[in-house]
C-alpha cells in the first residue's frame, strides 16, 4: 500500500473562502516545525487511497543541474514509498508552457480520481511577476543579450490541479514558491464562493515564502532536507 498523507494541515481549494495571506510552510536550515509536520503527514498511509501517482518536473536546460536530484527523488518515492507511477518531465526551453499544459492535462486525465493521490514536484528557479503570480524560469540570466529566458506562469497551470478529483500534494522547490498559495476572497455578503464539491483537497509544501529565496544546492537546501526526512528510519516504519 502506498504511503501517503492522511492529515493535511491546510486545504487550499476553490471551496475555501479564506483570504490569501502571503504565507506558506517553509523549509529552512532549522527544519521548521511546519515543514517536519508536512513530511510526517506524507509518511502515513491509509486504506482510503488506492494509488499514488507523481509528476516530477525540472528544466532540461537549467543552469543548476537538477536532473540528478529529481531522479533521486523518483527513486525514493518508488523504493521507499512504493508510488504506483512516477513520471519525470524535463521542460523544454521552446514551447514550455504548452508542453507543461499538455502534460498536466494528460496526467489528470489518466490518474485523477477520488481514490488516488497525486503528487507534483518542481525544482528550479521561481520569481513573482508584477501581478504576484509565481513564474518558473529555466535560468536566472539570459545566455545571450538578445535571448529571452524560458519562463512560464505556474499560477495558471496550478488551477487544473486544484480542481482535480484527487487529493493533490504540490512540492515546490523554488524561490518565491509561497506565491503559489492562491487568493480565496470572500464574496461581498460574506458567503463563500460557489464550488465543485467533487474537488479533492490541495496541499502545498513550499520551499520558502512569497518574496524569499531558497538556499542553493548543498546540505541545507530544501531538497536535501526533504530527502533526509523522507529517508529517515521513522519514515519506513
Throw out a few tags for this protein.
alpha/beta; single chain; 5-stranded parallel beta sheet; 3-stranded antiparallel beta sheet; 237 residues
Summarize the structure.
The chain is of the alpha/beta class and 237 residues long. It contains five helices and eight strands.
Characterization of this structure:
24% of the residues lie in helices and 19% in strands. Residues 1-33 and 185-196 have low confidence and may be disordered. The strands form two sheets. It has a five-stranded parallel β-sheet, with helices on both faces. The chain has a three-stranded antiparallel β-sheet with strand order 4-5-6. With 237 residues, the protein is an alpha/beta fold.
Question: Which helices and strands appear, and what pairs or packs with what?
Answer:
Elements: H1 33-43, E1 51-59, H2 67-79, E2 85-91, H3 96-111, E3 116-123, E4 125-128, E5 134-137, E6 151-153, H4 154-162, E7 168-173, E8 202-206, H5 222-230
Parallel strand pairs: 1-2, 1-3, 3-7, 7-8
Antiparallel strand pairs: 4-5, 5-6
Main sheet properties: 5 strands, parallel
Provide the β-strand percentage band.
15-25%
DSSP summary: helix tally: 5
Q: What do the pLDDT scores average to?
A: 76
Query: Total strand count, please?
Result: 8
Distance between the termini: 13 Å
User: Strand order within the widest sheet?
Assistant: 2-1-3-7-8
What is the string of SSEs from the N terminus onward? HEHEHEEEEHEEH
Categorize the overall geometry.
globular
What value does the Rg take, in angstroms? 17 Å
Low-confidence stretches: 1-33, 185-196
Structure classification = alpha/beta
Q: Give helix % range.
A: 10-25%
Amino acid at each position: 500500500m502506498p504511503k501517503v498523507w492522511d492529515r493535511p494541515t491546510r486545504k487550499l481549494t476553490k471551496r475555501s473562502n479564506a483570504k490569501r495571506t502571503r504565507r506558506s510552510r517553509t523549509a529552512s536550515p532549522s527544519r521548521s516545525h511546519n515543514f517536519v509536520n508536512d513530511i510526517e503527514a506524507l509518511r502515513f498511509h491509509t486504506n482510503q487511497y488506492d494509488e499514488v501517482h507523481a509528476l516530477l518536473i525540472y528544466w532540461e536546460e537549467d543552469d543548476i543541474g537538477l536532473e540528478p536530484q529529481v531522479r533521486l527523488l523518483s527513486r525514493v518515492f518508488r523504493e521507499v514509498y512504493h508510488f504506483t507511477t512516477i513520471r519525470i518531465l524535463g521542460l523544454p526551453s521552446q514551447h514550455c508552457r504548452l508542453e507543461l499544459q499538455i502534460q498536466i492535462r494528460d496526467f489528470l486525465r489518466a490518474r485523477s480520481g477520488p481514490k488516488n493521490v497525486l503528487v507534483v514536484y518542481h525544482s528550479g528557479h521561481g520569481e513573482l511577476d508584477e501581478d504576484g503570480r509565481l513564474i518558473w524560469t529555466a535560468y536566472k540570466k539570459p545566455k545571450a543579450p538578445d535571448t529571452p529566458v524560458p519562463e512560464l506562469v505556474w499560477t495558471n497551470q496550478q488551477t487544473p490541479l486544484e480542481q482535480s478529483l484527487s487529493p493533490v500534494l504540490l512540492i515546490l522547490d523554488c524561490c518565491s514558491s509561497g506565491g503559489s498559495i492562491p487568493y480565496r476572497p470572500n464574496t461581498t455578503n460574506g458567503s463563500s464562493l460557489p464550488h465543485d464539491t467533487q474537488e479533492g483537497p490541495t496541499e502545498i509544501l513550499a520551499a520558502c515564502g512569497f518574496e524569499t529565496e531558497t538556499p542553493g544546492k548543498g546540505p541545507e537546501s530544501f531538497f536535501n532536507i526533504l530527502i533526509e526526512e523522507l529517508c529517515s528510519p521513522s519514515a519506513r516504519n
